[in-house]
Amino acid sequence: MFTIHSLEDTEFLPKLVSFLKAGGTAFLSEGLAHRLTRDPRLPAADSLEIPKGKYLHTVQAGGGKLVTFSGALVRLTHVDAQNRVAQLTPSLREALEELRKTVSEFTPTSLDAPPRVAVFPLRGRVAVMNFTELAVNCRLTGMGGMVSRQRKVFASEGASLASDGVTLRLPPHTIIVVE
Which pTM was predicted? Predict the structure, then answer.
């Protein structure tokens, strides 16, 4: 996953092209995609820019793929001046689901986690944090279907791993770490 800050590395583009030729999938922020979309060194079959009204755009590049993600997916919810939490639109929900499915091929994630529940892969372990005011249940998936039974390494009070080894139960503002 790369943002515009990647351009600070003078070797970024040759490294990216090599990665794509090896069949890799790279995720690009909208800002980085805008800067790279007309670069002739990039083996992209199409523009990297997200079409109007969309939040994700996938382009074949060499033997790999470039997935451009909108900044709207990074800022999914916010609190306004009246202390109300903004809700996801149906199109943002669909885009988030599509992004999670694409990412799940490479790393553990939770396709059914609501917004503001974060999944942090940590070298063989996964931390899941509930930043909401509500209790949530979610299931870990990913690694091309290789995520199976997990075991709890650490949990805040009340957070638990169900007997199936993949369903997590998190009260508000809690964390659980599994491996």
Answer: 0.70
What is the C-alpha separation between 166 and 158, in angstroms, rounded? 16
Distance CA 179, CA 169 (A): 16
The Cα-based distances of 125 to 45, 108, 122, 147, 176 in angstroms read: 36, 9, 5, 11, 10
- The β-bridge relationship of strands 108-109 and 160-161 is unpaired
Strands across the sheet containing 167-170: 136-139, 167-170, 160-161
- 20-35: pLDDT as tens digits: 999 999 999 999 999 9
Domains, the chain, with CATH or none? 1-103 (3.40.50), 104-179 (2.60.40.1180)
Distance of alpha carbon 78 from the chain centroid: 18
